[in-house]
Design a protein that fits this description.
Layout lengths: L2 H7 L3 E8 L4 E6 L7 E7 L5 H14 L10 E6 L4 E7 L3 E2 H8 L4 H20 L2 E2 L8 E3 L5 E3 L6 E2 L19 H4 L6 H18 L9 H4 L12 H10 L10 H5 L2 H4 L5 E4 L6 E4 L1
Antiparallel strand pairs: 1-2, 2-3, 3-5, 4-5, 6-8, 7-10, 8-9, 11-12
Helix pairs in contact: 4-6, 6-8
């Protein structure tokens, strides 16, 4: 049966098509059950490889229990006998990567406001012994009021961290920690911290810190900046991007870093394409 037809039977009206990933499509939809529009991720279990289906099953188990203001809220999950899966979640205006493209790069105060929310979400996940393993700017959504929402838990799993290690090579290479790319067993919590460092670097410079062709070489070298970035911010990024996972901080230590303790100003920015203002505190 056509997914849109099923959505109609479930009480949703498709407003627009938002995008397509490796394992499904995402629609913007409305329903009398919700005041605001929702995003609905549609996946077909029958077309998935067994390894992908394993990740999906794990994701569906994990997202049931997540409850945090900076993590996307899942309202409903439906599955048909034919294997079509519908995940109904809160909708956002754009993702962080799109915002970086629009702004070219984030002013430091704005970066601090957004990044503080992201760190809060990851602290919550790690306290629940959940590792995300695919933190990247595309998986961080922005709502019109400036709230971030971490999404896409397809590679997430339960893990207490060292000495309980992960073995799956997963995630997005430009954001992956060196120990992951080298195929070693790794502490998923420490690899998430590396990804946080890559995200903040990308926010304040508008570009990724490592060229994928030379990534294993560049990850060992001091970071280079193509635009001026204040030293305290550079030092904070280097703190998260320590090559050795044993000296790399935990996310709790990241949250306690002096750079994040300095109160950021209230910042309001606007999307050039939509004209919608985003206020961040």
């Amino acid at each position: 049966m056509n997914p849109k037809r099923i959505l109609s039977l479930l009480g949703f009206k498709v407003v627009s098509f938002l995008g397509e990933g490796s394992y499904g499509k995402v629609y913007l939809a409305s329903s009398k059950r919700y005041l605001n529009n929702v995003a609905i991720k549609v996946m077909d279990r029958s077309k998935m490889a067994p390894s992908v289906e394993k990740f999906l099953t794990r994701e569906l188990e994990i997202i049931k229990y997540l409850d945090h203001p900076y993590i996307v809220q899942v309202y409903e999950v439906h599955e048909t006998p034919q294997g079509l899966i519908f995940i109904v979640m809160e909708a956002a205006m754009m993702d962080l990567k799109q915002m970086i493209v629009e702004l070219n790069y984030f002013p430091v105060d704005l970066a601090k406001a957004v990044f503080s929310q992201l760190v809060s979400a990851v602290v919550y996940l790690h306290e629940q012994d959940i590792v995300h393993r695919d933190l990247k700017s595309e998986n961080i959504l922005l709502t019109p009021d400036g709230t971030i929402k971490v999404t896409d838990f397809g590679f997430s799993r339960m893990s207490r961290g060292f000495p309980e290690l992960c073995n799956s090579l997963c995630g997005t290479p430009n954001y992956c920690a060196p120990e992951v790319l080298c195929g070693k067993s790794y502490d998923g919590k420490k690899s998430d911290v590396w990804s946080l460092g890559v995200i903040l670097y990308t926010m304040v410079t508008g570009e990724l810190p490592f060229n994928y062709e030379n990534i294993l070489y560049l990850q060992k070298k001091p970071l280079q900046y193509s635009i001026p970035v204040e030293k305290s911010c550079r030092d904070f990024i280097s703190y998260m991007l320590q090559y050795d996972p044993f000296t790399r901080p935990s996310v709790t230590e990241v949250a306690q870093h002096p750079w994040l303790q300095l109160k950021s100003a209230t910042v309001t920015t606007a999307s050039k394409n939509t004209g919608k203002k985003i206020g961040l505190k």
